[in-house]
Automatic annotation (TrEMBL):
Source superkingdom: Bacteria
Cofactor note: Binds 1 FAD per subunit.
Co-factor(s): FAD
Name of this chain's protein: proline dehydrogenase
Annotated Proline dehydrogenase domain residues: 44-292
Catalytic activities: L-proline + a quinone = (S)-1-pyrroline-5-carboxylate + a quinol + H(+)
Metabolic or biological pathway, per its Swiss-Prot or TrEMBL entry: Amino-acid degradation; L-proline degradation into L-glutamate; L-glutamate from L-proline: step 1/2
Organism, scientific name: Thermus arciformis
Residue positions binding substrate: 99, 288-289
GO MF terms, alphabetically ordered: nucleotide binding; proline dehydrogenase activity
GO biological process: L-proline catabolic process to L-glutamate
InterPro entries in alphabetical order: FAD-linked_oxidoreductase-like, PRODH_bac_arc, Proline_DH_dom, Proline_oxidase
Length: 307
């Protein structure tokens, strides 16, 4: 395993320790402000408006995952429905992301499917697109089943995510082709064993481009969700060389990450969306951002030792 991945594995490993969680929650206020739009829907909508003024569209994400009770899953569903209704009142943005375990996937797939179906029944007629985020590898199979079930029920405003770090992903992509998915492609943000995921960042990056090009060649709509300058440059080069129009793909980045690049891509005429998380359950999201970037860990440590 190379250093980047060993670092990620270490951070995500210790982040689960309750003491570390308490420490980060106390000390990471600055990082939270950078990566999370706020605790309320109102704050998230304000952040979305500011992005929109710069030509960047928002993807609203009510933070939450890994729920342990049906009551909690239903509470998150209510929050997501409030978000959908609020977006319906505005010309933009019309896009939400959610996590299957936020709607009870770990309790029962049937529960998650029924809560998701209710969300889509509200979202689809209002023109709001719903992206199912992809979580860690034990949830991939069930998440793909949920996506396929919703498409088979006739919903179209729903999208799926594939992760280039998993060995299985090319096969998953080929299996999904009959569904003509609106695909978000990411590298993958979780701590995965080498039995299921490439243990080398260069392989993950190469696989990302391989899968992205394959999806474009197959005629899918692809959301390239990455901040990686080399990958963004290669997607631009490839699509130009192959004559793939800008309507067939987009770039997605995270709120607070490379904002100047987000604006630059928008000015160049690409569709750009920023993933805007909000809510009180920000800890696991922030832990993944720290795990992606050693500088973020230094910021937490500095606040610890520097007072
Ligand atoms: P990489 O990690 O190689 O970073 C490339 C460069 O980007 C870095 O050198 C740095 O400059 C910058 N950068 C990256 N992360 C940064 C950070 N946190 N802060 C500041 N700069 C940073 N994952 C998943 O498993 N399931 C999902 O559903 C999603 N969904 C999703 C949506 C969107 C819109 C994005 C952008 C990402 C995701 N991800 C995700 C996360 C994804 O898997 C991945 O962990 C991150 O995007 C980081 O990987 P990069 O592709 O940016 O490359």
């Amino acid at each position: 395993m190379n250093l980047d991945l060993a670092y990620r594995s270490f951070v995500l490993g210790v982040a689960g320790n309750p003491r570390v969680e308490r420490l980060i929650k106390d000390r990471a206020k600055g990082l939270v402000r950078r990566y999370v739009a706020g605790e309320t829907l109102e704050e998230a909508l304000q952040a979305a408006e500011a992005l929109e003024r710069e030509g960047v569209h928002a993807i609203l994400d009510l933070l939450g995952e890994g729920v342990k009770t049906e009551e909690e899953a239903r509470a998150f569903q209510r929050g997501i429905l409030e978000l959908v209704w609020a977006l319906a009142e505005r010309p933009w943005p019309k896009y939400v992301s959610l996590k299957p375990t936020q709607l009870g996937l770990d309790l029962s797939e049937a529960l998650a499917l029924s809560l998701l179906r209710e969300v889509l029944r509200e979202a689809e007629p209002r023109g709001v697109f719903v992206r199912l985020d992809m979580e860690d590898s034990p949830r991939v199979e069930a998440t793909l089943r949920l996506y396929k079930a919703l498409r088979e029920e006739g919903f179209s405003q729903v999208g799926v995510v594939l992760q280039s770090y998993l060995y299985r992903t090319e096969k998953d992509l080929l299996d999904l082709l009959p569904y003509r998915p609106n695909l978000r492609l990411v590298k993958g943000a979780y701590r995965e064993p080498k039995e299921v995921a490439f243990p080398d960042k260069r392989l993950i990056d190469a696989e990302y481009l391989h899968l992205g090009k394959l999806a474009l060649r197959e005629g899918l709509y692809v959301a390239f969700a990455t901040h990686d300058p080399r990958i963004i440059a290669e997607v631009k080069r490839y699509t130009q060389a192959m004559g793939v129009p800008k309507e067939r793909f987009e770039f997605q980045l995270l709120y607070g990450v490379r904002p100047e690049e987000q604006r630059r891509l928008a000015r160049e005429g690409y569709t750009v969306r920023a993933y805007v998380p909000y809510g009180t359950h920000w800890y696991p999201y922030l832990a993944r951002r720290i795990a992606e970037r050693p500088e973020n860990l230094f910021l937490v440590l500095r606040s610890l030792f520097g007072g």
